[in-house]
Structures are given as structure tokens and as C-alpha cells.
Amino acid sequence: MLQDLDFLADRIGQLVEQSRQLHAERAQLLARLKTQDAELDSLRQQNRRQQDEFESLSTGVASHQRQLDVVQQQAQADQAELKRLLEQEQAQVMALRRELDSARAGMGVLRDVAGQARDQIGSILMRLPGAVQE
Question: Coil, strand, or helix at residue 132?
Fold first, then answer.
């Protein structure tokens, strides 16, 4: 019976030692869990900040894209208007050139006619009585 008590005492000692080890291990695990929870909270906050920053940047990019689209549309409209004005001015220049060429041709005809008229008037004046003969 003494031997049984010794065996039981040894066994109880082993159980007490295992219990202490389990308590120490539990304390370590709880400390790790607390550290991991704090790290998880920190990562969640960091993730939230990054999501907020991403949303802010996305909003800014979308706003800039809309502004760019408006500017591009205005530039295209302005370019079309300028092209239309250029074509209109070119057509007007061509019309004025044709008119100038026609006026120049008319002036040439008038010069010829004026020269012929002068010659005829001179000829008529020479035939009049009392005309000075050259």
C-alpha cells in the first residue's frame, strides 16, 4: 500500500507539473492571442485608411476624367468651327480672286477701248476744218 501511495504521489506530482505547464502554455497562448488581436485591429485600421485613400483617389480620377472629356469635346467643337470658318474664308478668297481677275480683264478691255476711242477722236479732230496738222 505504501508503494501504491508513492506511485499515486508521483502520478499527482506529474499531473501538477503538467497542469503548471498547461497553465504556462495557456498564458503564452493568451498573450499571443492578445498580440494577434492588436495586430489584426491595426491591420484593419490600415486597410480602412487605404480603402478611404483609394476611394478618394478614384473619385479624383473620375472627376478629372469627366473634366478631360468636357475639354476634349469643347476642343473638337472648336476645331470643327475653326475648320468651317477656314473653309468659308478660303471660298471667299477664291471668289475675290475670281472677281479681281475679272476686274483686271475688264480693265484691260477698257484700256484697249479707251485707246481706240482716243485714236478715233484724234482722227476725227484731225479731219475737222482748222485742225492743226502734225
Answer: coil
Question: Which residues, 6 or more positions from 133, have their beta carbon under 8 angstroms from its beta carbon?
Answer: 126
User: What grid cell was written down for 94?
Assistant: 477664291
Question: What one-letter code names the amino acid at 98?
Answer: R
Q: What is the pTM of this model?
A: 0.51
User: Which residue's entry shows cell 484593419?
Assistant: 44
- Give 76-84's long-range contacts (Cβ < 8 A, gap of 24+): none
Number of H helices, E strands in the chain: 1, 0
Q: Give the DSSP H/E element, type plus range, for residue 99.
A: helix 2-127
Residue 49 CB burial class (10 angstroms; 0-12, 13-18, ≥19)? exposed
pLDDT digits (tens, 9 = 90+) for 25-62: 999 999 999 999 999 999 999 999 999 999 999 999 99
